[in-house]
């Protein structure tokens, strides 16, 4: 397998946390994704869009305010305008202050615009009851969503007008447990549309092996030995022409995992059609941003789509102008784009627009086709993000001033304060969950109602916790890891009481070993001299890091540090003896842990240290710095004092 080619990290496969790197598609450089036909209702959705374009109908696109919703909206809008430049489209995303998901006001707006084909992106699976009027007026509705569906009491005749494309409704459970973000679903919807137009989506394929026939429809596994279904006969030699496959491996995959063979068929159907492949390359980075922001499992086709977006597959992505401008504004070098850039820089920037009640600012950048105008709009979005950071700081101060009011003995962290500011509840809930190692709820006032966010910890399904008490909410939506809600002020205390009761059930059995399994990091011991280009190359092959593929923390044991420097008052940067001089070590908020060292920085050089952190190429090299690499320190532990050791040696000698 390919992983044996890794140099420094070749032994990773020996660890339980990295058994997944032995999967056949982990190191692939090809577009190995499942057939779009696995998505329920996709053919209905394709026919709805076809009908709208054919009849010059007005199209209404409504997406959620978060990163996944924004990127999904831009992907779909850009695609439709390329297909039919003169099409009438109403483009809209929700913003902070709106109700979650579909609501009465948006339905009224749809009627006002006289739209006939309506897309709901990253929402809708739990709000179908609000679509009654649209259904009655024979509007065609396409929902692209990955949230938990609530359709038990919905009349079946609704679905004559609704294409509910949600992977959680798939009959077959795939390697990612059918958890794929809406941006990924939107990309697959577009690929399905194009494959349908090229007649490839309907094509049947069959593979014969060991006197058995395996049947596929554009990579969708149909079963074995189907009567009257000859299809295009494929063999190992057909695959070997296009993929570097070992025959024994191929036969083993056919026998044990025929669904996985379907990925190779789908990849061929896309890669052999330049027009379709170009669309995949055009939208893959947008899809990757949405997928990483939503923290979906980074396995199988999810990983492959993100790799295409990061530029680590055989085919390189083509960025839309708006995304180029965004990268330029925040000094991200696309040639070395990684999952950390997206999760820590790009996603928060896009999220800021929705959180500050101005989602249109993110859309304005991404749909802009004029490079100069896109740069101007990217600057506006960046300024908005600065305001979001200031609001977050103020809320953080409120939390710190009132932390004594939190009942930390409960299995759930709950915080509400009347002075808390809106728009950043998700960030604050995440910070509390990270700090207290428990699921957390943050609630802030917002006009007539209060708004809140809940974030998971340790694998707890937070939406499942809230559904039994959904009557307490004005509005509720989300998924297993995160949810948001609107609530009346008088119900906040009731929610607190109920959540503490329910959390006993959901949190029981979560022991320390289980929580360790949920850790997004993996420690790997390394020598300072091994930090360099070769390691960066290995890490690039292991990208993207996140849920299901833990980021590697490198442990440098008993090292000496030098060239220490304080910056922005509370952070330090330094070098490590025996490491390359072009590596800049950065420890954020160092003096919160080592406050006694601020006035005596030189004393730190008198110790040996164990240092744990992440290693990456410096995105600002060579334009703004001479440091080619950065090592972000997460933890430093003092070891022996070198002065004391020297004194002991001298005493023994003399």
Structural commentary:
There is one protein chain. By secondary structure, the protein is α/β, with parallel strands linked by helices. It has 5 domains: 36-198, Alpha-Beta Complex (inorganic pyrophosphatase (n-terminal core)), CATH 3.90.1640; 201-272, no CATH class; 319-387, no CATH class; 402-515, Diaminopimelate Epimerase, Chain A, domain 1, CATH 3.10.310; 521-650, OB fold (Dihydrolipoamide Acetyltransferase, E2P), CATH 2.40.50. Helices cover 39% and strands 20% of the residues. The protein has a 7-stranded mixed β-sheet with strand order 15-16-20-21-19-18-17. Helix 12 (339-355) crosses helix 13. The radius of gyration is 26 Å and the shape is globular.
Apparent shape = globular
Please identify, by name, the CATH architecture of the largest domain: Alpha-Beta Complex
Summed up, the domain count is 5
Number of DSSP-assigned strands: 21
**Considering DSSP H and I runs of 4 or more, what fraction of the residues is helical?**
25-40%
Radius of gyration: 26 Å
Uncertain parts: 1-5, 509-518
**Count of individual helical segments:** 21
Strand line-up in the sheet with most strands = 15-16-20-21-19-18-17
The CATH topology annotation of the largest domain reads as: inorganic pyrophosphatase (n-terminal core)
From the N-terminal CA to the C-terminal CA, the straight-line distance is 59 Å
Major β-sheet profile:
7 strands, mixed
**What share of residues are in beta strands?**
15-25%
* Mean pLDDT level: 89
Q: What is the CATH first-level class name of the largest domain?
A: Alpha Beta
Structural class: alpha/beta
């Amino acid at each position: 397998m390919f992983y044996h080619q890794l140099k420094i990290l070749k032994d990773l496969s020996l660890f339980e946390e990295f058994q997944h790197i032995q999967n056949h598609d982990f190191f692939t450089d090809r577009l190995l994704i499942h057939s779009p036909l696995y998505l329920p209702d996709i053919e209905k959705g394709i026919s709805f869009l076809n009908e709208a374009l054919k009849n010059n109908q007005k199209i209404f696109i409504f997406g959620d305010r978060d990163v996944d919703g924004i990127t999904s909206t831009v992907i779909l809008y850009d695609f439709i305008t390329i297909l039919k430049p003169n099409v009438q489209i109403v483009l809209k995303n929700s913003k902070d202050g709106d109700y979650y998901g579909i609501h009465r006001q948006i339905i009224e707006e749809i009627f006002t615009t006289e739209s006939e084909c309506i897309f709901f992106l990253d929402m809708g699976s739990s709000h179908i009851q609000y679509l009654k009027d649209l259904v009655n007026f024979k509007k065609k509705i396409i929902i692209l969503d990955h949230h938990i569906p609530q359709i038990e009491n919905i009349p079946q005749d609704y679905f004559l007008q609704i294409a509910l494309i949600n992977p959680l409704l798939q009959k077959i459970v795939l390697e990612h447990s059918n958890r794929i973000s809406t941006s990924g679903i939107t990309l697959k919807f577009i690929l399905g549309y194009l494959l349908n137009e090229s007649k490839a989506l309907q094509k049947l394929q069959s593979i014969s092996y060991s006197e058995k026939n395996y049947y596929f429809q554009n990579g969708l596994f149909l079963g074995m030995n189907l009567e009257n279904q000859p299809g295009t006969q494929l063999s190992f030699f057909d695959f070997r022409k296009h993929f570097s496959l070992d025959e024994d491996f191929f036969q083993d995959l056919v026998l044990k995992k025929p669904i996985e063979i379907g990925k190779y068929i789908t990849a061929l159907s896309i890669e052999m059609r330049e027009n379709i492949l170009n669309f995949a390359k055009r939208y893959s980075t947008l899809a990757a941003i949405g997928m990483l922001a939503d923290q979906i499992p980074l396995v199988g086709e999810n990983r492959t789509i993100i790799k295409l977006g990061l530029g680590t597959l055989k085919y390189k992505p083509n960025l839309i102008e708006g995304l180029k401008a965004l990268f330029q504004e925040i000094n991200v070098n696309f040639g070395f784009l990684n999952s950390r850039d997206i999760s820590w820089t790009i996603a928060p920037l896009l999220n800021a627009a929705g959180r500050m009640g101005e989602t249109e600012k993110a859309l304005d950048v991404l749909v802009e086709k004029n490079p100069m105008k896109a740069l101007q709009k990217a600057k506006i979005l960046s300024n908005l993000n600065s305001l979001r950071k200031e609001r977050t700081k103020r809320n953080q101060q409120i939390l710190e001033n009132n932390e004594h009011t939190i009942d930390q003995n409960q299995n759930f962290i709950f915080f509400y304060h009347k002075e808390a500011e809106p728009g950043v509840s998700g960030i604050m809930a995440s910070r509390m969950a990270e700090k207290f190692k428990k699921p957390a709820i943050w609630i802030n006032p917002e006009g007539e109602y209060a708004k809140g966010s809940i974030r998971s910890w340790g694998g707890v399904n937070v939406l499942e916790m809230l559904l039994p008490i959904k009557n307490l909410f004005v509005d509720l939506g989300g998924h297993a890891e995160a949810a948001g809600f609107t609530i009346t002020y008088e119900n906040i205390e009731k929610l607190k009481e109920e959540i503490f009761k329910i959390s006993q059930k959901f949190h029981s059995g979560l022991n320390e070993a289980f929580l360790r399994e949920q850790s997004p990091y993996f420690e790997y011991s390394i020598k300072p001299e091994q930090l360099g280009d070769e390691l960066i190359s290995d890490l690039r092959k292991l990208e993207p890091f996140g849920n299901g593929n833990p980021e590697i923390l490198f442990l440098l044991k008993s090292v000496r540090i030098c060239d220490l420097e304080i910056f922005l008052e509370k952070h330090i940067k330094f070098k490590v003896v025996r490491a390359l001089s072009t590596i800049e070590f950065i420890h954020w908020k160092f003096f919160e842990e080592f406050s006694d060292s601020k006035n005596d920085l030189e004393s730190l050089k008198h110790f040996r240290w164990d240092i744990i952190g992440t290693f990456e190429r410096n995105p600002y090299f060579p334009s703004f710095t001479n440091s080619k690499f950065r090592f972000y320190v997460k933890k430093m532990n003092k070891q022996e004092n070198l002065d004391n050791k020297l004194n002991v040696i001298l005493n023994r000698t003399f």
